[in-house]
Design brief:
This protein is an alpha+beta fold and 196 residues long. Helices cover 35% and strands 23% of the residues.
Length: 196
Amino acid sequence: AAQALVDGRGAERVALALLLRAGARLALRAATPDDAQRLWQWRNHPATRAVSRQAEPIPWPDHLQWLQRTLADPARRLWLAQLGDRPVGVIRFDALSDARHEVSLYLDPGLHGLGLGSALLAAGEAALATAEAGGAGHGPITVVAEVLPDNPASRQLFVAAGYRAASSASAASEHVFAKTLAAPAIPPARTPECSP
């Protein structure tokens, strides 16, 4: 137990927490095949698996196949979050329809408790809204999140971010949350000034 508390990453956690408190924002970039090892390690960590739909460890070859399919799928967006040059988490949006997406996210397990989850969700929502605004006729986007019953931290994260229990006759709906994102404001085109 003591080893879990003393992992040699305390200074890093303090620095990241200070950056967040000072107003630093997470930057998102598209995940690449070069991220495979990091994503696999984060996803297979016991803390991540405990709150995932698939709780069993994912074999490396299966992960590589999943990542290749995900990166090639235009209906999926997989972004790696960084604070400065430090990767801190990953967020994925799967298009369920033109205006409905399911979100999934997880952090570097060594960085839990710093407030990065809410920052990651906010950055992901903003990136999704901006990316989808480029499509013709896109209005509001609904994001849904399925939270396992024994994951109160995720439930709290989504509720604090404005997600509400999805309305459905299904008993499972008490673990599905949804939020509608407004389309980002597009500034009006500037018209040249005319001289008399």
